[in-house]
Amino acid sequence: MGSVSSPYVLYATFTILAFALVQVELPDPYMDEIFHVPQAQRYCTGDYFTWDPKLTTPPGLYILSVIPAKVFHISCTTEYLRGTNLVLSLLLPAIIRFVLSTFPPRTSSTSTSLQVSSSANTLESVSIALFPATWFFGNLYYTDLGSLVLVLLSWGMARKERFWVSSLVGLLSLAFRQTNVIWMIFIFAVSVLHELDVVQDLERSRAMTINGRTRRQAEKERDELTIGEILSETIKIPSRLLTSWKELMPVAVPYIPTLIAFGAFIRWNGGIVLGHKEMHEATLHFPQLGYFLAFATLLGWPILLDRGVTELLKRAIKDGFGGIRQALTTSVLTRVTMLAIKHTTIVHPFLLADNRHYAFYVWRRVINPFPAARFLLGVGYVGCAIIWAGRLFRTQPPLTVLGLFTATLLTLTPSPLIEPRYFLIPFTILRILASPSPLPSVSAASESKPVDGVASTTVSTSTSTKRTAKLDADDKKRRIIIVELLSYTFINILTLTVFLTVKFKWDSEPGEEYIGVV
């Protein structure tokens, strides 16, 4: 791999050093670890039938830790168990890079361009793995990191059209978090939609030729898609499924056993939560989507600003108020958001009582410092939705974008708790789909157009200019990712410092308490 591996070496060094610091400062189980660690240790001793009723997630993480412990005769100490997540942290960039590699590079077909794209993917995968809420969990014994790794691996396998492997990995992810079934359905749905596009690709190509439109022109027109056109495409799906069902069977069949197995679990368990059901009852907590969008915007700013603040604002205004339909949609969305905040905001007892969570302080000082604050923030949530929707609709199939927002909504709204770790999977998928596009500037492209009478000379110049423009665009993408990487690294150092140095006492608990992102 040569110099390409340098970002990963730095990432691994940083991650391992942070892990070591946490183990020295905090050797005993902390927060939810007081439930996870003893349960895993029971498994290590061969007790597979005693279950702590306060645990709400399946035993996938414990099994993952126990297997090497049994094989290599390792004692299941807290440090060893946390090491499971350290290993997952070190694997995460490779998994993300694998998923990124399934998206065709938007540069050129030359070997140089492919090498640049590969290098950029390596850097980008490290940057995404450093996402603060994700990176932090490499230091403790929680289920979220394993859940994320398996969902991403399942998605990548599906994009490689290895659907049986994708389904199996998806089934394993359900052993970490039950709500991953929503992401399995998302992966299944986008795989089917992709296959529908493949089946009808020939017809589309012919239609483009007949109408005198090139593929580039068709992609450009996607920028102008209206809600009506998106709804029209959605309405056509059932008929397209019926006409292409034979071609879709290789995609659909592998996921059926996984969905049946999950249905059997729900029936056997009497619900989705394993234990502590009274504190994790399903709700309709719609403001969760607003919290997520604000969180994603605050941490995703380097990607959103890849074309500058002015361009971002121009696009947001155009997407939100560029016409009657856009303005009407924004008005309705704002009204719905206000109603959701008014009628479905949930303040969980844990949110008000546990000052070890950042959410405790965010709620008191940002979301609810005075009665009207929640509604003022609602306008910001709508703005964030417009920005992200505009970004994704310009780079991804509309139904994939709608599927992502739907899956995020279904994942977050049933939870009464506000916790950044619930955002890991939707944000990571969002970030991958919103990857900065290394497209050359319009001016560079226009310079390559031949002029009558000097076509032969211009061909050579054109090729050189295009190659230079695309390499410049790759450099711009790399700079954007470096900014993102540095900002995440700074936040991680800051939160780790706070976690290790800011301590306080609870009268009801022995020992010291720490502030963490969990």
Task: Outline the secondary-structure elements.
Layout: H1 6-25, H2 33-44, H3 60-72, H4 78-101, H5 111-129, H6 132-135, H7 144-159, H8 163-174, H9 180-199, H10 201-210, H11 215-221, H12 227-243, H13 245-252, H14 256-269, H15 287-299, H16 301-304, H17 309-321, H18 324-344, H19 349-353, H20 358-367, H21 373-393, H22 398-412, H23 424-433, H24 442-447, H25 455-501, E1 503-505, E2 512-514
Antiparallel strand pairs: 1-2
Helix pairs in contact: 1-4, 2-3, 4-5, 4-7, 5-25, 7-8, 7-9, 8-9, 8-14, 9-13, 9-22, 15-21, 17-18, 17-21, 18-21
Describe the structure.
This protein has 518 residues and is mainly α. It has a domain at 282-435. Helix content is 70%, strand content 1%. It has 25 helices and 2 strands. Strands 1-2 form a two-stranded antiparallel sheet. α8 packs parallel to α14, α15 (287-299) packs across α21 (373-393) and α17 (309-321) crosses α21. The model is unreliable at 107-113 and 439-459 (pLDDT under 50). It holds the Pfam family DIE2_ALG10. It is found in: Endoplasmic reticulum membrane. It is a multi-pass membrane protein.
